[in-house]
Amino acid sequence: CTQVLEPIPLFCSSPLVLMLTGVLVLAGLFSIIFFVSGVSHFQDPLFCVFVVLSFTSVVDLIISLEEDGYISGFVEVYVREGEPHLRTAHGILICYWDGVIHYGLYLAMIAAIGRRKSYRNLGLFWLGSLMMSIVVFLLGNLIGKYSSDLSPAFLLNLPYVLIPIWAGLRLFQQPKALPSVSLTQVAEEQRKYLYQRPQDAGLVLLLLLTAAFTFFRGMVVLDCPADSCFEYIYQHEPYLRDPVAYPKVQMLIYMFYVLPFLCLCIYGLVLPGCSWLPDWSLVFAGAIAQAQFAHLGSSLHPRTPFPYQTPEDVWWSFLLTNVLYALGPQLLAYRCLRCPAFFLPATPASLHRGKKHQ
Fold it and tell me: Which residues form the EXPERA domain (predicted)?
């Protein structure tokens, strides 16, 4: 028996076999969903997407637990032969996020679909989180130290690029929940200047500081010769120098995409009627929450080489700045959902105020 079974592990460790196994498992799960649920839930195709992705979330949680030594013997061959980049600190942290946060979101959205309730807000938060996770992960794999180790199993990540785009289009097409506010309340709220809205003023200040920090860290990873940048990358966040390239990709996405959006958010908090802000603030909140969790955790994770780990003497300042960085978008999304009157399409009264300023 031993002689007969010896070739099996070698066959199963082939990257192509691993990729085909993953495809077959997903196809089988999709078939089970169809025969068990019938066609009723298939009226919303996102139901199938969330069920399948919830399965992959469980797999990611198993990967992260196994890489951290809590369990063993489940996915060692797949990770070693198929996706060795999941053994990095960043890979482990995004697997934790997918296996806990995304899994919880999938269950909540599946339950909402079953009860015929709206899941639009949860979906937009998930959309931003998943897009940020997969973009940083794929780009880091392509340009980082593991670019030479890519195998056919890497192609299993491609649906994670296409599915969020399609799902995002469907989520934005879903009807919004109508806020229970009158035109009088909307006009009254939109007549207030920024100094009359202290909470919004504080939020604008926080977003300005976030934008400044975003620009600074972008210059740091672009090898700015300033002394402050040199000191920061060696004494405060040496993880930005890690050759895996995930932190560098993350900071560049922050600088070229998040920074302009921060400016738009400040604009939307100053001038009334920016009806696009509530939806996009949820996408923004999900993206930054995932990115900061992965970045902060990877900086402190023991799988990161010691020269690139955050020094212990700056732990508190590092944690404070990165937690505040993640907190700003969450507060913005909460503010937009809690009191949306300021962001509704401009009323005649607010238009009249704008003409007076002109």
Answer: 43-168, 199-333
